[in-house]
Design brief:
By secondary structure, this protein is α/β, with parallel strands linked by helices. It is built from 13 helices and 16 strands.
Length: 395
């Protein structure tokens, strides 16, 4: 299949891949090469809009991410264990007139041993698949290892292949095991590198099995469907898996950011790249800014932040105050009157400490105690982009 495609920069091109179920081709061949799928789009939306230097597309498949990276200015190495995937990547690069993509065969980081990159992007074959007879294995989604072991190897191997300040952006799945949340297991995988991990969805073992059995084309109600579901559940039971998380992993060599969270609400993918870049910049600024410097800083409320107040009937004071982010990750933050007043007054004119002292005087509370309460919450709002630091200060 050679299908038209619009790249993130608006340019038009082509993506070559295998024919699939939509074209009436079933069953899929084990080395099936997927076209532009549901996972590839969010990964592309997280990539920096422009860049330079070496970048790695780990598990390139049809080449979509490699093409996007090359169009954004990176010198790209694209790797895959599948010769068929590499053939499609070469074909796609030729169709789109993209030179400067170094295409290499091999598993995980073997083809780039000893090399370091400004950026590593990966939509790896992260699907947790039983290692059992009768369960089809597709190279585009199944890395051949038990459980989430392949995801662990992709994440733990990234730091040694990043330059200082280099970033890795990945999609993945991870298991909750024996009461240990998957996000905590991923935390252990990222002990030596800055990490921001977002779990976008949580599925129980049955729903996860149904998702990937259906993805393979097996229809509910058939004997084969029931046998495959049973194989998945037996596999999960063997590792005492209680759930599976699906989400995004971002790493930065040299950063001290450590953030592991669940973000289930819908987000505007058009603003994700700019937002994630701003979060890493804010993390670096906060890391070198103690509370005294923070109190002396002049901040501005982001243009996409709104405030909602909820009143009980007849009540003068609100029972709930919420700060809502229109862009970014569309966060909602509960606020008390002091925090709401500080955010409302952050117009880029007065330092944070001066505002807190004025609010303390207005509320008739101790200014030092109010600072101790508000400054950690101000840090959170800066990190998540609801309060902005002047560009010259952030840089």
């Amino acid at each position: 299949a050679v299908r038209p495609h619009v790249f993130a920069d608006g340019g038009e091109g082509w993506i070559a891949s295998d024919l699939d179920e939509l074209a009436g081709v079933f069953p899929l061949r084990p080395d099936h090469v997927l076209g532009v799928g549901g996972a590839g789009r969010p990964l592309v939306s997280l990539l920096p809009a422009v860049g330079s230097g070496p970048a790695l597309d780990l598990g390139c498949g049809c080449g979509l991410v490699a093409f996007e990276l090359r169009r954004r200015g990176f010198d790209v190495v694209a790797t895959d264990i599948s010769p068929r995937a590499l053939w499609f990547t070469r074909l796609g690069a030729a169709l789109n007139g993209l030179e400067g993509i170094d295409i290499r065969e091999g598993s995980l980081y073997e083809p780039v041993r000893g090399e370091r990159f400004e950026l590593i992007a990966s939509n790896p074959p992260f699907v947790i698949t039983p290692r059992a007879a009768g369960v089809p294995a597709y190279e585009y989604r199944d890395g051949g290892l038990a459980g989430d072991e392949l995801m662990r190897e992709v994440v733990t191997g990234a730091a040694s292949h990043l330059v200082d300040g280099g970033r890795a952006i990945m999609l993945g799945n991870w298991e909750d095991r024996e009461g240990v949340p998957g996000l905590e297991r991923v935390r252990a995988w990222t002990a030596d590198v800055g990490a921001w991990v977002i779990e976008r969805e949580q599925l129980d073992p049955t729903r996860y099995a149904e998702l990937w059995v259906r993805d393979g084309g097996t229809r509910p109600g058939s004997a084969e469907h029931g046998a495959l579901i049973a194989a998945w559940l037996d596999d999960f039971e063997g590792r005492r898996v209680t759930g599976v998380g699906l989400g995004w992993v971002q790493l930065m060599r040299g950063s001290r950011l450590r953030r592991f969270e669940r973000v289930a609400q819908g987000v505007d993918t058009a603003v994700l790249a700019a937002h994630t870049d701003s979060v890493w910049r804010a993390a670096a600024w906060l890391d070198r800014t103690d509370d005294m410097l923070l109190a002396a800083s002049v901040l501005r409320v982001a243009a996409d932040v709104t405030e909602a107040r909820h009143h009980l009937p007849g009540a003068e004071a609100p029972s709930v105050i919420e700060l809502r982010q229109g862009g970014g990750l569309a966060r909602t933050v509960s606020a008390d009157p002091a925090l709401a007043a500080l955010v409302g007054a952050s117009d880029g004119e007065l330092p944070v400490g001066v505002l807190i002292d004025a609010i303390a005087d207005l509320l008739e509370v101790d200014a030092a105690s109010l600072r101790s309460d508000l400054l950690p919450r101000v840090r959170e709002l800066v990190l998540t982009g609801m309060l902005e630091v002047p560009h010259d200060a952030a840089d």
